[in-house]
Amino acid sequence: MLRKIRITLAAVMFIGITLLFVDITGTAHQWLSWMAQVQFLPAVMALNAAVIIALVLLTLLFGRIYCSVVCPLGIMQDLFGWLGKKAKKNRYTYSKALSWLRYTMPAVMVAAWAAGLGAVVQLLAPYSAFGRIATMLLQPVWAWGNNVLAAIAEHYDSYAFYTVDVWLRSLPVLIVAVVTVVVLAVLAWRGGRTYCNTVCPVGTVLSLASRFSLMKIRFDESKCKNCSLCTKNCKASCIDFKTHSVDYSRCVVCGDCIEACRHGALAYGLALGKSRETSQDSQDSPTSSPADTSRRSFLLASALMTTAAMAQQKDKMMDGGLAEIEDKVAPERQTPLTPPGSLSASNMEKRCTGCQLCVSECPNQVLRPSGSLLNMMMPVMSYERGYCRPECNRCSEVCPAGAIQPIAREVKASTQIGHAVWIKKNCIPLTDGVSCGNCARHCPTGAIEMVLADPDDEQSPEIPVVNEARCIGCGACENLCPARPFSAIYVEGHEVHKEI
């Protein structure tokens, strides 16, 4: 019962969070955004005291159920481990915890955060690692599947599906995602929860509380036959059948050991009296009866359910279908553009965990991971494929870490994240001698005006002039500029945003 409850709720959580990342319709976040908000590290970054306290209390009460039910990376490790057990049963062994490495990793993360090394923090964050995998590897597959259905629907004159662009947002981040999957797969295949209990900083922090949890898995020595099946099926390598002891700091309450035990020597229940990770624990608890087992299963089910409810192709543009238009090239911005609601570049660097949820949810294809080495996975804006529409605030709605604060549409329309800069040598009226004015026509704030290049010559071409005080940096001018490969007008970012 314990294992079935865990698997059911973990499956719901894993599927929900995966849908949150791969969704291309923009509707999943309305129902599933709470799943991102109950992740431990994003809650810490967002200073979400309610979630942090709730997760700590749940750990103190029921053990590290967060790692086996809530954390998507932990659940993914269980999937790899399950495949490993299919290949070879009873594959695990007991091993002592590598305490020096476990407690070094949280220290490294805190030091990196204090030093402004966001890439290090994002590499170590478990939820962010899964987000990169889902965005870079799973979302393209989901989009391709959607496009196949769209092609089939089009054949039958149906508009039930529509095609979407599938494009590479960042090659370095894609490589990081692939390496992460390979490393986790190998570690989980061979050793189960090796990464979770040795490298993951969140697992280490929660392990400090799980030692003192009220509910624990305990031995009944009078029933134990020392068959070692519990140890051989413990993915956390935390059960020593020889001494009848459990390392509760590594136990994730998966229930595999209880199911593997053929003699009923293991049970999940209240840790009465002094809690010790030795065989003495079993001497403090009586033999479990069927009624006790039912009560324990009910308590665990209640705890896990409480956790789950806690927070409630355009490959080439064409001109008239005849001439191919050269792809745009991103300009070299002196200051990166960060989304409205992020307040400033420094706020993004301090709070962003690099989970890529805002990147995967951006409907205008504006957000993509940074190419900077220090902030390689932090989202930045670029306007080659679209522009930041004033009426869209989806990234601010889905960010669980507070790096992008919720912002109303009317406030966003007046928030200046940068300003447009005109590049004379690229402007078509001057290079090709034709009239244009695309930037002025499409500017939502009227910050661009077309004036004569030579005020004394009425026959001279009209060129754009930017009123920086009115420009909000949405990028409509840069995106819609017909100049190729470099736009004749581009947006330079601001370190600190302001409302105009």
Describe this structure as you would to a colleague.
There is one protein chain. The protein has 500 residues and is mainly α. Helices cover 46% and strands 11% of the residues. It is built from 23 helices and twelve strands. Strands 1-4 form a two-stranded antiparallel ribbon. The chain has a two-stranded antiparallel ribbon with strand order 2-3. It has a two-stranded antiparallel sheet with strand order 5-6. Strand 2 and strand 3 (245-246) form a beta hairpin. Helix 1 (2-22) crosses helix 2 (28-37) and helix 4 (49-62) crosses helix 12 (201-210). The longest helix is centred in the N-terminal third of the chain and has 30 residues, at 126-155. The radius of gyration is 27 Å and the shape is elongated. The termini are far apart.
Give me a quick take on this structure.
The chain is mainly alpha-helical. It is 46% helix and 11% strand.
Comma- or semicolon-separated keywords:
two-stranded antiparallel ribbon, 23 helices, mainly alpha, two-stranded antiparallel sheet, about 500 residues, 12 strands
Shape: elongated
Helix percent band: 40-55%
How many helices? The count is: 23
Strands, total number: 12
For the CA atoms, what is the radius of gyration? 27 Å
* CA distance, first residue to last residue: 59 Å
Q: Residue-averaged pLDDT, rounded?
A: 86
Which stretches of 5+ consecutive residues score pLDDT under 50? 278-291, 296-301, 303-323
The portion of residues forming beta strands comes to: 5-15%
Main sheet attributes: strand count, strand direction, barrel closure: 2 strands, antiparallel
Strand order of the largest sheet: 1-4
- What structural category do the secondary elements indicate? mainly alpha
